[in-house]
Write a structure and sequence with these properties.
Elements: E1 2-8, H1 12-28, E2 34-41, H2 45-55, E3 59-61, H3 64-68, E4 75-78, H4 85-94, E5 98-101, H5 109-122, E6 126-128, H6 136-147, E7 153-161, H7 178-181, H8 185-201, E8 204-212, E9 217-219, E10 227-229, E11 235-242, E12 247-253, E13 262-269, E14 272-277, E15 283-288, E16 299-302, H9 323-340, H10 348-367, E17 371-372
Parallel strand pairs: 1-2, 1-4, 2-3, 4-5, 5-6, 7-12
Antiparallel strand pairs: 7-13, 8-11, 8-17, 9-10, 11-12, 13-14, 14-15, 15-16
Helix pairs in contact: 1-9, 4-5, 5-10, 6-8, 8-10
Bound molecules: nicotinamide-adenine-dinucleotide.
């Protein structure tokens, strides 16, 4: 079945999504949905025109409304800055389109819950790009936890750190301004870690957070001496209490010297522990307390065809998967949902559950108190 795509936003993620659709067709074949690149939109006309020529879209426009109303578009693929996700996704669903939206779903839990309810009511595929959920390593770790082999889960510890914004001469961008991004390191990076932890352990019940802006002003453009204020968190630390009673310590930084894509976490249970880092994407480290006393120690498991998704790329164990492969698995899951009605994890409801946690964390950091995630507006607990 042909799946006709209308892409909105032709930046990094727009290109990554298109690459992922092409490679999903290569890896899985047309029975799981054949992407057709119908139309691309970007507010920057050059970006839209270049994307049309380089990525193979038949038509381009500078107005996303052309895409959500186009009769030849089946799925609207949203890869704009965060602030535009809500309006575009809502208009797409109202115009009878399926939606594939980058994370975070919207700027607030309220907007995300509204979108989740609307998409459910209209019955369209509604997918959010929390690609780490598609990483075979994280799926394997979820299987380990669900199987009970690690015992009762006691603690989740994780951080997602990068140093991409450590240089204070880097100009201000949409990522630093709340009306475009909603939050800083938390929404950009930390939400990925939250998506993994909530995928594996379930929802967080309450949070207590502390955040800091480390670089308070940035040049308005490259080389300029005129500065603009950074509005959101460069660094954030969170104490979390999961609904399953596990304790969490979670953090994120976009100014972490030396850390490039340091998404790392450990899950400790009463019968074992697992730890993982995205910088060592193909290695899962596991300890089982049930091993013979003399043999006890962490074992390193390389990804292999035994792990869900891996054999789309390699028939033998120990080959290296990379970031774009997660997006290929994501594109496949979406195409398959569209063409074969298969189930998927990262729907708008899942996206809204992350945004509820993000909202509670921001409120806690602001009001300096514990916030209950599940209650609207949050309460002190
Ligand atoms: N899943 C991931 O791992 C991951 C990684 C990076 C970014 N993201 C998400 O992807 C989204 C885009 O991020 P990016 O890094 O590609 O940003 P980017 O700045 O590289 O690209 C955004 C593009 O959107 C265009 N744009 C802005 N407003 C628009 C509008 N109203 N209509 C059409 N086009 C518009 C811009 O001109 C630009 O070309 C963000 O929501 C971000 O959080 C996700």
């Amino acid at each position: 079945m042909d799946v006709r795509i209308g892409l909105v936003g032709a930046g990094w993620m727009g290109k990554a999504h298109t690459n992922a659709f092409v490679n999903a067709l290569m890896a899985f074949g047309p029975d799981y949905g054949k992407p057709v690149f119908e139309m691309v939109s970007d507010v920057n006309e050059n970006a839209a025109k270049n994307a049309s020529e380089q990525l193979g879209f038949s038509r381009y426009t500078t107005d996303w409304k052309d895409i959500v109303t186009d009769k030849k578009v089946d799925v609207v693929d949203i890869a704009t800055p965060n602030a535009f996700h809500y309006e575009i996704a809502k208009a797409a669903v109202e115009n009878g389109k399926h939606v594939y939206c980058e994370k975070p779903l919207t700027l607030t839990a309220e907007q995300s819950v509204e979108l989740a309810e609307l998409a459910k009511q209209k019955g369209f595929v509604n997918y959010v790009g929390y690609n780490n959920v598609m990483n075979p390593a994280n799926a394997y770790i979820k299987e380990l936890v669900d199987s009970g082999r690690l015992g009762r889960i006691v603690k989740f510890t994780g951080t997602y750190d990068q140093d991409g914004l450590l240089d204070e001469s880097i100009p201000i961008s949409w990522r630093h301004i709340n009306k475009f991004s909603g939050s800083g390191a938390l929404g950009d990076l930390g939400s990925h870690l939250l998506s993994i932890s909530q995928f594996i352990l379930g929802n967080i019940q309450s949070v207590n957070a502390l955040s800091k802006i480390v670089i308070k002003d940035r040049p308005v453009k490259e080389g300029s001496s005129e500065l603009a204020a950074v509005e959101n968190d460069d660094v954030i630390s969170i104490l979390a209490n999961y609904e399953n009673d596990a304790l969490g310590t979670i953090s994120s930084s976009r100014v972490a010297a030396g850390r490039k894509n340091f998404l790392t976490y450990e899950i400790q249970g009463t019968e074992g522990t697992v730890y993982y880092s995205l910088e060592r994407m193909n290695e899962v480290n596991i300890y089982f307390a049930s091993d013979n006393a003399a043999d006890r120690g962490f074992r390193q498991v390389f990804l292999s065809p035994e792990h869900k998704g891996y054999n789309a790329f390699y028939p033998t164990a120990g080959n290296a998967m990379g970031y774009n492969d997660m997006k290929v698995l994501e594109a496949h899951e979406l195409l398959s949902a569209l063409s074969n009605d298969t189930p998927y994890v990262c729907d708008f409801e899942f996206g809204a559950s992350i945004d509820k946690t993000v909202d509670a964390i921001l409120k806690s950091a602001k009001e300096k108190k514990w916030i209950d995630v599940s209650k609207k507006g949050g309460v002190t607990v």
